[in-house]
Design goal:
The protein has 103 residues and is mainly alpha-helical. The protein has one domain. The protein has helices at 27-37, 47-73, 79-84, 86-102; strands at residues 13-15, 21-23. The chain is flat and about 55 Å long.
Length: 103
Amino acid sequence: MWPFTKSARFPGVKENTDGTIEFELTAGEAREADRALEMFKGLVVHPEAAERIRNGTIAVALARYAKDMVDVHCDIETESERTRRWREIEGTLEKAVAAVWKS
């Protein structure tokens, strides 16, 4: 079952008619990417591997960011709580999906 409304919005993602996407990182995503890249500060890597290491590090950071958002904001005990908090949960899930999509 698709959990989102038809008007779901994925922050920072623009879907093109040909199925490709254009995206920019949100402030929170960029902060997580920068923090992950800090681990490599001062290290020397082969120039041919630098872009792959950078992109892979950012992808992992975005996936972890999404997981952390879902873990913190969507831990629901009961159906009534889920119903009561659905708008908040849906917004969090949209942000998490966008982060994973960008990764």
